[in-house]
């Protein structure tokens, strides 16, 4: 067994609310098991939550015969000068109780003094002066515990394609704090009272991508269902259905060899839906360029379109540099919307960014700038968006 310590230092300068951190593996092609321990400190400033410090430790165990890794352990802590706290613990491994079941356990505890609430619906009003006056903010404490399992049902011979079954169980506690005089205080949406959602679920994934982290061809389709019934002692019994389709195409252009990456996602929730469990749009994972939770509704549909290309590679330094351009679009729905609204009133954003692959093609550092009709948002993440 071989152990290596990797240390990275990142500085994130972003607009309010765009604090995001992820840890990606640093695999090595060596015989036997490899253990890589990564310690990543980061610093940022956001006008709403102040200076933010992050400390993240990840431990990966690799084996050439196991993809993408044997196991992963993550610990991340974020804290700010204005009371923001975020603790995340994750453990994932590819075999459970001697069976080929990929399991992931996650715990997340958050105290956020400036979370966002803009109302319910696709056409909620945004006022820049009220944004600066913190009219859309509220205080929240939340705790998430979840388990996700995945096992392969069918894999054709001599093919990258797999058909997988997924299953999950989780619990979430949310305690919003009403800021007197703010929008959430005026509207009093469902979920304003603290409560639990305890859920179970399952799904199907068909995956034919050539790479899990930076696909150049193939696709991925997922259908998932989550159920929070009353008999599991839920304060807000509800059901959530999601469908996601990804597709990757290599364009036969000389030199640059660009990749067209496409994603279409739809979700629908029904039952007693607290506002904090509603499908939403607006962050680095949905519509880049809008603030977090900009639009909430009973349903949401959005697509992401990216044109990606690597423009420079230095094999000796194991360094690659790339660029990408993107276009995001989507909308949410409530009971007030009609069928004809499916094809209109979509919110659109556009932008671009750069990526760098360090140490290995799987470790990708990404910077995005997203433009909407309301503001500019800057993002720093590890790994492609999808």
Tally of contiguous helical segments: 2
Radius of gyration: 21 Å
Runs with pLDDT <50, length 5+? 1-31
Averaged pLDDT: 86
Query: How much helix, percentage-wise, in residues?
Result: under 10%
The chain-level structural class is mainly beta
Termini separation: 32 Å
Strand content: over 45%
The 3D shape can be described as: globular
Number of strands: 20
Element order, helices and strands? EEEEEEEHEEHEEEEEEEEEEE
Q: Can you summarize the main beta sheet? A: 18 strands, mixed
A few lines on this structure:
With 386 residues, the protein is an all-beta fold.
Task: Give an account of the 3D structure.
This protein is mainly beta and 386 residues long. The chain has helices spanning 128-132, 183-187; strands at residues 2-7, 10-13, 34-46, 50-63, 66-80, 85-93, 101-116, 137-154, 162-177, 195-207, 218-228, 238-250, 259-271, 280-281, 295-296, 299-314, 319-333, 347-358, 364-371, 376-382. The strands form two sheets. It has an 18-stranded mixed beta sheet that branches.
